[in-house]
Design a protein that fits this description.
By secondary structure, the chain is α+β, with helices and mostly antiparallel strands. It is built from 24 helices and 24 strands. The strands form seven sheets. Strands 2, 3, 4, 5, 10, 19 and 20 form a seven-stranded mixed beta sheet that branches. The chain has a six-stranded antiparallel beta sheet with strand order 13-12-11-24-23-22. GO terms for molecular function: penicillin binding; peptidoglycan L,D-transpeptidase activity; serine-type D-Ala-D-Ala carboxypeptidase activity.
């Protein structure tokens, strides 16, 4: 009994102690609240009311591109767009909810969604099932990154099939929402935004935080596919491989940026000055935006290209390719290239290339633009480079203008035989460099190469040429014309060609080099080479941009000149004026003398064009078959050149099959088209 009474007396005491402790805690809390209210009340209020001003840059339309006569080649077309600007404080649930609301108002393509996107989205939508992918022990033992990786790996195809079509559309929008940085506007949709979609989103902006409707732009091409491989393309969003570079230069992740050729080469000019906008934020949410400074679209490019001439050259190539394939059944003939260049300034007037490619949609072969192939692909051109060989002989001192060399079949002790195409042994004749060029003598070039390599030909002797010396000297002097080296054109992706590597016992390859059948050259290099001969010895740097202009206004489509691209002489060849004139006369005889290999360029309606030229054929291999490449270099008028032309037609016909003259057929028509156009404009 006493124990029970004693026990009861302790219970009220404990309760009192508990109540006292609670009283102390509440008193401390009230004291703290009072302290904050009285002492720091104003600071707390200011913190709640505080807004932040954050300045961001928004993109502007790119500069336009015109041809030399100021015809628009690349323009901008306005289009409706829906954007999203992420708040400063990211909230996954709110962002997902906004994406779901927007998905009900617009249609969004899902073709850019990756498997990784689907996995992450499934985990987001199914947190309980996703957590069950790992055991409690795995969650406890693994690091966060390792656990997340293992979790993603255990998401199955069956799991992903749970994502409905509507889910994927939400994912596509959510993916765009989360691509950029906070307060950095991202394009959600800017292609095929209908008026109805634009209106629906505009009406519901109050319930779509961060979403906005605006006007964007896209590139359009008035000349359609003409010169498309040269004009280049624009990325919608920064490329992953150059993300750091562009962001360091003030780009946003959703900005358009030049992807290839002209758009890439002149990105700094075309991108423009971004508009600056101040976002007023409170608690991480955007309250309003204010314009800080207006942007200006990019500067415009004026090209050296004559688009009317370009179209005519494209048409000629297409017609001649189709005609030749239909007439001769040439199996491997699938492309042709033409470069037209002002030999005095280096301006590219036309850069044309066509190639047969298989169209998966149309299920047939079609001719597509391959203008870039003029400087991104290289071929053995054959005799077209013999002008460089002759001048190399002069510049090394082994020959001189007017020196006679016997064209005869060359026979060596090891059984090797080499000869000119027109001389199998019955018609040995001495000739100077002019006749050698006119008739396209191989032997004249062979003997020149042997002399450069320190060897005087003796019938029945071993070929005692110093191969290293011959190649070093010939390649050095060929490079003075631009053959085998970069031309310096203002476009990315140029190749210098392939330099052959002769084996120890292949000294004869130096002879092949002398007739253009060893190293490979681009068609643009051939244009630079023939321009050097045409203008009297200056290697001009080719360029495709003529001017950079400030953006125009409503009254004038073209603004003032910001920069004019000046003609540039890269080097002068070491030949004398007399030596160059000798080769020029040889090129004239190719076209205008009986027995010349290019007489088709100087007959009938082409006679008055006064063309000087050198044709070329080269035996090579394509897909394991022996084929002939055809080439042509030319300029006109002979006395005062204003146009230089180079042509390469790879695999023009199979060895042993019927020959064709597609190089000359294209060449004479292109030259006539140029001068006809000049006459029309002069009227």
């Amino acid at each position: 009994m006493r124990k029970n009474k004693k026990k009861k007396t302790h219970i009220p005491l404990r309760i009192n102690l508990l109540f006292f402790a609670v009283f102390i805690l509440f008193a401390a809390l009230i004291f703290r609240l009072g302290y904050v209210q009285i002492v720091h009340g104003e600071d707390a209020k200011r913190e709640l009311d505080r807004t932040e001003d954050v300045t961001v840059k928004t993109s502007v339309p790119r500069g336009l591109i015109y041809d030399r006569d100021h015809r628009p080649v690349v323009e901008n077309q306005a289009e409706r767009a829906i954007t999203y600007t992420a708040p400063k404080k990211f909230n996954q649930e709110e962002t997902l909810e906004t994406a779901k609301k927007l998905a009900k108002l617009i249609e969004k393509e899902t073709d850019k969604i990756t498997d990784r996107d689907k996995i992450d989205f499934w985990i987001l939508l199914h947190p309980d099932e996703a957590k069950a992918k790992l055991s409690d022990k795995e969650w406890a033992d693994l690091k966060n990154e390792e656990a997340a990786k293992l979790q993603r790996e255990r998401v199955t195809e069956a799991d992903l099939k749970m994502l409905s079509k509507d889910d994927l559309e939400v994912l596509a929008i959510y993916r765009e929402f989360t691509k950029g940085y906070a307060l950095d506007p991202q394009i959600v949709k800017n292609e095929d935004v209908s008026l109805e979609e634009f209106a629906r989103v505009s009406e519901n902006l109050n319930s779509l935080p961060g979403v906005d409707t605006t006007m964007d732009w896209e590139r359009i091409y008035p000349f359609e596919d003409t010169l498309r491989t040269i004009l280049g393309n624009v990325n919608s969003g920064l490329p992953a491989e150059k993300l750091d570079y562009y962001e360091a230069h003030g780009y946003s992740r959703s900005d358009r940026v030049g992807k290839s050729y002209l758009e890439l080469q002149y990105e700094d000019v075309l991108q423009g000055q971004k508009e600056k906008v101040k976002n007023v934020t409170k608690s991480g949410q955007i309250l309003e935006t204010e314009l800080v400074s207006e942007g200006a679209r990019g500067k415009d490019l004026v090209l050296t290209i004559d688009m009317e001439l370009q179209q005519k050259v494209d048409q000629i190539i297409e017609e001649e390719l189709r005609k030749t394939k239909a007439k001769y059944g040439t199996q491997l003939l699938d492309r042709a290239f033409v470069t037209l260049m002002d030999p005095n300034t280096g301006e590219i007037l036309a850069l044309s290339g066509k190639q047969y490619t298989y169209d998966e949609d149309e299920k047939k072969y079609v001719l597509r633009d391959f203008a870039s192939g003029n400087f991104t692909t290289a071929y053995v051109p054959g005799s077209a480079v013999k002008g460089a060989t002759v001048l190399t002989g002069f510049m090394t001192g082994v020959n001189h203008p007017g020196k006679w060399i016997l064209d005869e079949p060359l026979i060596f002790k090891d059984g090797t035989k080499k000869s000119s195409w027109f001389n199998g042994g019955c018609c040995n004749q001495s000739m100077d460099e002019k006749t050698a060029l006119m008739k396209s003598s191989n032997v004249y070039m062979f003997k020149t190469a042997m002399l450069i390599g320190g060897y005087q030909y003796q019938r029945g002797d071993y070929l005692g040429i110093d191969k290293v010396k011959a190649f070093e000297k010939m390649r050095y002097y060929f490079s003075q014309f631009g053959l085998g080296t970069m031309t310096g054109i203002d476009l990315p992706g140029e190749m210098s060609g392939y330099k052959g590597d002769p084996k120890t016992n292949e000294a004869g390859k130096a002879l092949d080099f002398a007739i253009g059948q060893f190293d490979t050259f681009t068609n643009l290099q051939l244009a630079q080479y023939v321009s050097t001969i045409a203008n009297g010895g200056n290697r001009m740097q080719p360029h495709i941009v003529k001017e950079i202009r400030e953006p125009g206004n409503e009254d004038e489509k073209l603004g003032p000149i910001a920069q004019e691209v000046q003609s540039k002489v890269l080097n002068r060849i070491d030949a004398t004026e007399n030596e160059i004139k000798s080769v020029q006369e040889g090129f004239w005889r190719v076209v205008h003398s009986s027995g010349g290999t290019g007489t088709a360029l100087g007959q009938g309606e082409y006679k008055n064009l006064r063309i000087a030229a050198k044709t070329g054929t080269a035996e090579t291999f394509d897909q394991g078959k022996s084929v002939w490449n055809l080439s042509l270099v030319a300029y006109a008028p002979y006395e005062n050149p204003e146009i230089a032309m180079s042509i390469i037609v790879p695999s023009a016909y199979l060895n042993g099959s019927t020959e064709n003259k597609i190089n000359s057929d294209i060449g004479k028509r292109v030259m006539k088209a140029y001068f006809d156009l000049q006459k029309e404009r002069a009227k």
